[in-house]
Design a protein that fits this description.
The chain has seven helices and five strands. The protein has a single domain, classed as 3-Layer(aba) Sandwich (Rossmann fold). It is an alpha/beta fold.
């Protein structure tokens, strides 16, 4: 496992599922990331001013404000306009990825997913693009059997190429 050394990555994870938040918090911490997690979009909006995340992973199915509305609101804030936004969903429908991108998400992941797939979007953080640890993680992730299986599954459901 490669640690992200010399640059603490600040991640905000938004999901209504407590067990999933706890699991991903532990997994990201193993990779040296700083992670905060909240249950709702409203809590996420309240936290971004002080926490200043570099990446936000958000479920589409949140209580109150949904993930699409959260992404749209985050893109309108100066402080989060350029953060990497990752949509997480178990909602399988053609066209959902395009809807997520229109809302402002940079990446789209189907749940459940592996830590390899969760790490890939971090290579899109401008301050980390040159970080060798992040590049190594992204390369390892793309070579993993989990990534290939996930890509095949995703393609079969969403019709990706």
């Amino acid at each position: 496992m490669v640690k992200v050394s010399g640059f603490p990555v600040r991640i905000l994870f938004v999901d209504r599922n407590t067990e999933l938040r706890d699991l991903y918090q532990e997994l990201f911490a193993l990779y040296g990331c700083n992670i905060e997690s909240v249950r709702t979009g409203e809590e996420a909006i309240a936290l971004v001013e002080t926490y200043r995340p570099q990446a936000v992973y958000a479920s589409l199915m949140l209580e109150g404000m949904n993930g699409l509305e959260l992404a749209t609101r985050l893109r309108k804030l100066d402080i989060t306009r350029d953060v990497v936004l990752v949509a997480l969903t178990g909602y399988l429908q053609q066209g959902i990825e395009a809807i997520c991108r229109q809302a402002g998400f940079d990446f789209f992941l189907l749940k459940p997913t592996s830590i390899h797939n969760l790490i890939l979007p971090l290579a899109g953080i401008p301050d980390l693009a040159a970080n060798e640890a992040i590049r190594a993680l992204a390369q390892d992730a793309k070579k993993s059997s989990e990534y290939r299986a996930y890509a095949a599954f995703r393609s079969s459901i969403l019709g990706d190429n």
